[in-house]
Design goal:
The protein is 35% helix and 13% strand. It has 388 residues and is an alpha/beta fold. It has one domain: Alpha-Beta Barrel (TIM Barrel), CATH 3.20.20.80. Strand 4, helix 6 and strand 5 form a beta-alpha-beta unit. Helix 5 runs parallel beside helix 6 and helix 6 packs across helix 7. The chain is globular and about 50 Å long.
Length: 388
């Protein structure tokens, strides 16, 4: 409960920051040309194509920092990023699109040789009810605006059809906070998924539509906080979701367990993803792959769900090896999160691979060694071993 409250509080702060950024962005004069050169076309050097990171560049104001973040992602050996493209940023008024910020993220990611998995969400003010005595959050999407969101998803798929071929519809709809502080509803989410799927496929038939991005939680039916992802996914299938997604997006965190710890419905750990896979198979949907779009461990010194820094590095590499050896149905394993634009000065900072000032953490180097296949005496970050 405490962890969930902290998470919700930090997300509310992030939403307020996002609103401020939107206001500044709309008022700020746009440059006629890019001030930051793209540089030469790059290719990701990696031995582990599973490695992927979740970037948070939607709230990064300085283009140079966008470029630097993506350079360091490439140098890590991650071939793929998950990146949020908020609807509220792109369509500030009905039918009037502003792709400026999204365009420069996409340009720099492509120049660094990175594949993008796009996550769509966040509702503009015009698409949600707003009354002084009953304000709504940026995650509140009324059913009458489902088609508006779907049109945005289609416009996004059309604009970036040559750059982005994997699109996630919404984020963690099984949590009340992510559903606008309303009771979660797998049938309603399925209706949103269906409308979005149809628009995306019309714009780009080759795009993969990802459903879910479900949060790991133990909440039962009737909880004000949400619904556990196993029951929510079952509810989606009962509502006919199977026809409207090409792969499932999964969030699976390790918390204090090592990656090999056995899964169970009453337990939150890394292998909980297997329970979602079992649900897919039981529903006759086992031919579809999954993308793990959020995962990882936290090494905050005082957070109850954290591990030691050395454990975090070890568990992360063990998780990648476990997935490579056992989960043939997983396309990508994406860590949350590569970097925040600003330090939050709380436990979420200890999920990152590099700090806001671009200081690389030990886990960055550990993952880089794994992703790029470097042995100690071949690692350019370290001196060669001494001769005996």
């Amino acid at each position: 409960m405490i962890i969930r409250m902290l998470k919700h509080r930090l997300r509310r702060i992030a939403a307020l920051i996002a609103l401020l950024i939107i206001a500044i962005a709309l008022a700020w004069p746009r440059p006629l040309v890019d001030h930051v050169p793209l540089g030469e076309q790059q290719i990701v050097q990696t031995d582990q194509p599973l490695v992927c990171v979740h970037t948070l560049l939607e709230n990064e104001v300085q283009e140079a920092k966008i470029k630097r973040s993506l350079q360091l992602t490439r140098e890590l050996g991650a071939s793929t990023i998950v990146q949020f493209f908020p609807w509220a940023y792109a369509e500030p008024a009905p039918g009037k699109y502003d792709w400026f910020h999204a365009d420069r993220i996409v340009r720099h990611a492509r120049r660094q040789g990175l594949r993008i998995i796009a996550r769509l969400g966040l509702v503009p003010a015009w698409a949600r009810p707003s009354q002084p005595d009953s304000p709504t959050t940026l995650n509140f999407l009324p059913e009458q605006s489902f088609d508006d969101f779907a049109r945005y998803a289609g416009a996004f798929a059309e604009r970036y059809r040559d750059a982005i071929d994997v699109i996630i519809i919404w984020n963690e709809p099984n949590l009340s906070f992510e559903w606008g502080y309303r009771p979660v509803d797998p049938a309603a989410y399925t209706r949103l998924l269906r409308a979005s799927y149809q628009q995306i496929k019309a714009a780009n038939p080759d795009a993969q539509v990802l459903a879910g991005a479900l949060a790991p939680t133990l909440e039962g039916a009737g909880s004000a906080a949400g619904l556990n992802e196993l029951d929510f996914l079952t509810g989606m299938y009962q509502a006919g979701a199977a026809a409207y997604f090409d792969a499932l997006a999964i969030h699976t965190y390790g918390f204090r367990d090592p990656p090999a710890a056995e899964p169970a419905p009453e337990r939150l750990n890394f292998r909980r993803a297997e329970l979602l896979r079992e649900t897919m198979i039981a529903q006759g949907d086992g031919d579809k792959p999954a993308f793990i779009t959020e995962s990882g461990w936290n090494d905050h010194p005082r957070w109850a769900a954290a591990v030691r820094p050395s454990q975090r590095s070890a568990y992360t590499i063990q998780a990648f090896k476990f997935v490579a050896a056992n989960w043939t149905w997983v396309e990508k394993l994406c860590l949350w999160a590569f970097r925040y634009p600003a330090d939050l000065l709380s436990y979420p900072d200890y999920f990152t691979l590099i700090s806001a000032d671009f200081t690389m953490k030990p886990i960055y180097y550990a993952l880089q060694d794994y992703a790029r296949g470097w042995e100690r005496n071949e690692n350019p970050w370290l001196p060669p071993p001494r001769e005996s």
